[in-house]
# Entry
Amino acid sequence: MLISKTPLRISVTGGGSDIKNFYSAYGGEVVSFAINRYVYVTAFFRLDDKIVLSYRLLEEVHNVNKLKNTLVRECLKEAGILKGIEIHLASEIPTIGTGLGGSSAITVGCLNVLFALKGIFLTKEQLAVKACRVEIDLLGKEIGKQDQYACAYGGLNRFEFLPSSAVIVTPILNTDNLTGKFSLVNATDNSRLPAELLLSKQNKRIKKNIGILIKMKKQCGRLVKAIVSNDEKSIIKILNRSWDLKKQLSEQISSPSIDKIINLIRDDGGAGKLCGAGQAGYIASYFPFDRSIPIKTIPVEIDGEGTRLIQI
# Structure
């Protein structure tokens, strides 16, 4: 039996420029970090030919193509495991609609543990590439590439998405400057549109949003400099500017309830932005000092390891 432990992530700035329709022409950049909240994938070979999968549903099939969970189905096929396996998925934070890269964390963690069961130990780069292949190429999701890399690598990174499809990963080493300063606020709204539908709508607007995405991309270099120099005022300014730009991508990014929470954060001197596609999920807040906002928060720290294996 093997277990993979894969972090969720917070995308700080540049999100949207990691979508192929944009980076293939202009190159993309994202600053993000993995957080100490995790997705766990447990897997072991069975003595029969069944495939048993447990998550919020329980599936038991004899043919891999009968699995309803498309992520796990394609991960099994990618690893060449077509029968005789049992898999359990668990997460510290719900992975649907939270904006924390949950689907990619499942994909990366699943690939990590399945290949390891076969005695093949993939590098972080290989896991990220394969996870992108599963989600984007095989399943046709209209998403970017940042989540797969953030979940695989861990840490605080600047990701550059080149027109050639290559990805440059540059770790930002001064993570101590951010210790104790980020937290999450739940802004879930059950009336939201599905994340994939929101992303699809935003994808269709890329030509219209080129100018905004270029501005968002430029924020990445400025943010890295501010983090390295521990310039807290600039970090707040850049994060708030990044959210203002993100809201311009679509009228469906924010909502009155999200605006209310972010305004409370700003009024108290901090910075806040919604994680993920829009309308709901978690808001990442940054406060370099004690906060007084009357909102329940979940403290998070940077996970420095990325996906890893735990053997039982």
In short: Residues 187 and 281 are 5 Å apart (CA to CA). The first strand starts at residue 2 and ends at 13.
